[in-house]
Amino acid sequence: MFHAKTAGLGERFLDAFNRAFQLVVRDPDIHPRHESALAGQDFRYVTLDRFPYSVISLRQGEEAVIFAVAHHKRKPGYWKHRRP
User: Fold this and answer.
1) Which of 7, 17, 27, 28 has a CA 20 to 30 Å removed from the CA of 66?
2) How does strand 53-60 pair with strand 43-47?
3) Is 27 helix (H, G, I), strand (E, B) or coil?
């Protein structure tokens, strides 16, 4: 059963993700480095507005690749085993 409080929550999450994504696209190198990054990899993160998630990106040449959308309550760096 859905509560009125949750109506539209998915849309708000997507809006927050899209804003974070645009920040990564605009200037991927300006964001803070992720402390759980693998040695030799320059992972960066942008925190979503009003949601406990971060968009983790990795610069590959001229492109920034979204590597993970990480929840803040999960074990830090749980996504590191993924290959860039």
Assistant:
1) 7
2) antiparallel
3) coil
